[in-house]
Amino acid sequence: MNNLAANKTGKILLTTEEEVFEKLVEKDHPFRYLNEHFNFTELANSLSKCYSELGTTGIAVEKGFKALLVQFWEDYSDRDMEKCLRENIAVRWFCEFSLTENTPDHSYFGKLRKRIGPERLCEIFQKINEAMKEKGLFGEVFTFIDASSLITKTALWDERDKAIAAGEEKLNNAIVNNYTADKQAKWGAKSKTNIWFGYKRHNAVDMKFGLINQVAVTPANVPDYKAVKYLAPSQGMVFMDKGYDYEEADQWIREKGGVPATLRKNNNKQKNFDLDRWRSGVRMPFESTFSKQRKLAKYQGQLKVTFQCLAEAMVYNLKKAARILPRLATAET
Fold it and tell me: Which residues pair with residue 204 across a beta bridge?
């Protein structure tokens, strides 16, 4: 489609819809940096087998994947994402929908997430991280492992009342799944006052730029150190707090090829207070990674919550990459 435009001399020029569209998106928009540095067509190719029968006819695999990224980038609901694709010029441009092209309705996105699933999403997450490693964004020297809470439901008074009516004394982890909608969620506690119902998000954070390298999700009652076997890197020093001071965790790190740098409990005979102060100072700047992530589970069930955490880790890394890569390019010049 051609459109009329005038240059400085007043002469009428013909411009294409694509040219107009291109001019509407800011030159320094983060989505431009992502398109410049990451091949989303190649990244999305692995989804082609699960994508052919999805809801709206004719939506290319790359468009659906990019829409998924935007949804978690902005923390949109499915209906919010439907509206965003209709109205937001930059998002339409990034997801490769033209100005006049029909975009999917809200029902499309749930089907998309279900078809992709956490295993395929994990593969893409690792591919994106590999691309970032090639650009020097991962140091793979120091890694910080920690866990944070993911709340499925903030109050279980109705469930408690049902349990008491059924003859139970209290609603604990032994019986809670008999009364809750999410059958895999559990009670967890960081302290006597920090108690929640749901899951734990476990992240391994590379300590060069604070990017997330590995992700795992467990029910909230699983001890933090149990997730180390899923997160331990293949090299470098691994920093963890006192909750990980178990020989089992140290052994998993050594078997993978790393070196444990765990803060030791006060009753541990190997504790070195000066060394632990240094370790604590090294890891402190990267604790903010966990504070910036969502505290509420968007879905029910461990697989769906794992999908959420992988998607959020993916967009967290992409957001940081969109800020870091231009600075690195400027520094090189």
Answer: 145, 214
Beta strand 142-151 with 237-240: parallel, antiparallel or unpaired?
parallel
Coil vs helix vs strand at 199:
strand
If you write DSSP's letter for every residue of 140-192 in order, what string do you get? -SEEEEEEEEEES-S--HHHHHHHHHTT-S---TTTGGGT-S-TT-EEEESSS
CB 85 within 8 A of CB 66: no
Structure tokens at 202: 């476990």
C-beta separation of 269 from 245 below 8 A: no
* Rounded Cα–Cα distance for residues 93 and 85 (Å): 9
List all residues 6 or more positions away from 89 whose beta carbon is below 8 Å from its beta carbon: 21, 24, 25
Summarize pLDDT for 195-236 with one digit per residue, the tens.
999 999 999 999 999 999 999 999 999 999 999 999 999 999
The helices-and-strands tally (H runs, E runs) of the chain is 14, 8
| 22, 39 Cβ separation under 8 angstroms | no
What is the β-pairing status of strands 259-262 and 186-189? unpaired
The mean of the pLDDT values for the chain is 89
Whole-model pTM: value is 0.89
- The token pair that represents 50 in the structure block: 């699960």
Average pLDDT over residues 268-293: 90
Cβ(240)–Cβ(202) below 8 Å: no
pLDDT at 15: 59
